[in-house]
Amino acid sequence: MEKIKMITPLVEMDGDEMTRILWKMIKDELLEPFVDLKTEYYDLGLEKRNETNDQITVDASNATKKYGVAVKCATITPNAARVKEYNLKEMWKSPNGTIRAILDGTVFRAPIIVKGVDPYVKTWKKPITIARHAYGDVYKATEMRIPAAGKVELVYTAEDGSEERALVHNFKGAGVVQGQHNLDDSIESFAKSCFQYALDTKQDLWFASKDTISKKYDHHFKDVFAEIYEAEYKAKFEEAGITYFYTLIDDAVARVVKSEGGFIWACKNYDGDVMSDLVATAFGSLAMMTSVLVSPHGYYEYEAAHGTVQRHYYQHLEGKETSTNSMATIFAWSGALKKRGELDNLPELVAFAEKLEKASVKTIEDGKMTKDLALITSLENVKVLSSSGDWHKVQFDGDQVGWSHEDYISKTSSSSMNVKRTLTVKAYAYTGGGYTATGTKAKYGTLAVDPKVIPYGTKIYIKELDKVFTAEDCGGGIKGNKIDIYMNTESACRNWGVRTITLQILE
């Protein structure tokens, strides 16, 4: 079958930890066999961001402005613990924050609906899309601890030197104070992105704030939305048969719970942060939540709503079973491919992306799912899919590679392997790519050895990683009873460290 051709590249932003592993699997097994994938690749893994002083995030954002569509893997936003773990130069900013600021976009998050993963709110039948304004408010706030009695004021000093003051509070004792801000340009961009996305998806749009209490701040959001709607979008909405609706945030919450879904709910920054997680959880799982950043300038950036799945990643490095839900990451790719196909007039690419989504949903509805969904599904006869069982990559008919279920595979356990001898060694780890001493490409499965102790080509089972490795490389410091295990990332190497292990050398 001839692969589907692309015209314009996607901007591909790789990420961190378990989602980085899923990312490669999705590309290798679900995309590249069918699509002649064209991407402009940016490694937004934490190590590369640290190496480039985060310039690579800026470069990826600007590339998105150039090509229009991007797909992003989940990334680490480092805290103090991560700075130490990854030996970072500094505590780098959130990549998503940088991307949102450069693209001037609004984040739209919607759940993936599948039969058998039932919403906790029984009235919900259709997805509820959360549109989150991604600038300002508490996330850009300036805060101060008030140590004792005193007066706090808001002061605006105009460029001509004139001042306007407003009393915040006369403190009779200690307390705290916070100053928030937003920008007309950002609010207008937020409103236009919401209206345009509603038109693109043919959904009603709700917007909610607390203008009865916040008579200037929140009321200004309300006014901006109303003005833009009347001037630019009312006629378009009427033609499309959809509506725009404003209400107070507390009333919106009550209405959302009683609704059947099927609309976009636009929220200010903090409201959107909270409500997107609430809606995701209420629909079943945060791992089933899609996310797209939409700019009124015509830029789209797709990603999963969840993080890097750190816990599963460390389990994976230790050779333990994991069951990581890849649905939102698959839908990030399919969403980006659909949009690319729409913009480039490639109906075959759009059709492929839609089929990929349907096949992914059908897999779950057929009872094959990861552990997080198995725990909440109403389906019976569920098969839990994991990294150590169920589906396996196999080679057949010479060089042909595919996937087969374990029911149809004769599996070999370590106990049944033909172990020639055992050898206790000190085991190190390395990474970096390139080629081995025997001319093969370095990959996970490669061992660097002292060929005088372990000949090249020897197959070795490492119990700690539950994997058979091949001796095909060497190193200056690998002499005697020492080995070096190739790992995919520097963080994997650090997590392995140096261990004394017993190898099972196979015939």
Q: Mind explaining what this structure looks like?
A:
By secondary structure, the protein is of the alpha/beta class. It folds into three domains: 320 residues, 3-Layer(aba) Sandwich (Isopropylmalate Dehydrogenase), CATH 3.40.718.10; 38 residues, no CATH class; 93 residues, RlpA-like domain (Barwin-like endoglucanases), CATH 2.40.40.10. The protein contains 14 helices and 26 strands. Strand 23 and strand 24 form a beta hairpin. About 5% of the residues have low confidence.
Number of helices: 14
CA-based gyration radius: 27 Å
Strand coverage percent: 25-35%
CATH architecture verdict of the largest domain:
3-Layer(aba) Sandwich
Q: CATH superfamily name of the largest domain?
A: Isopropylmalate Dehydrogenase
Structural class: alpha/beta
Give the C-level CATH assignment of the largest domain: Alpha Beta
Quick take:
The protein is of the alpha/beta class. It contains 14 helices and 26 strands. The chain folds into 3 domains: 4-135 and 187-374, Isopropylmalate Dehydrogenase; 142-179, no CATH class; 414-506, Barwin-like endoglucanases (Beta Barrel), CATH 2.40.40.10.
Which helices and strands appear, and what pairs or packs with what?
Elements: E1 4-5, E2 10-14, H1 17-31, E3 35-36, E4 39-43, H2 46-51, H3 55-67, E5 69-72, H4 80-85, H5 95-103, E6 106-111, E7 128-132, E8 142-146, E9 150-157, E10 163-171, E11 175-179, H6 184-201, E12 204-209, H7 217-240, E13 244-248, H8 249-258, E14 263-267, H9 269-283, E15 289-294, E16 300-304, H10 310-317, H11 327-343, H12 347-365, E17 368-369, H13 371-374, E18 383-384, E19 391-396, E20 400-405, E21 419-430, E22 446-448, E23 459-462, E24 467-473, E25 482-486, H14 490-496, E26 499-506
Parallel strand pairs: 1-3, 2-4, 2-5, 5-16, 7-14, 12-13, 12-14, 17-18, 21-25, 22-24
Antiparallel strand pairs: 6-7, 6-15, 8-11, 9-10, 15-16, 19-20, 21-26, 22-25, 23-24, 23-26
Helix pairs in contact: 3-5, 6-7, 11-12
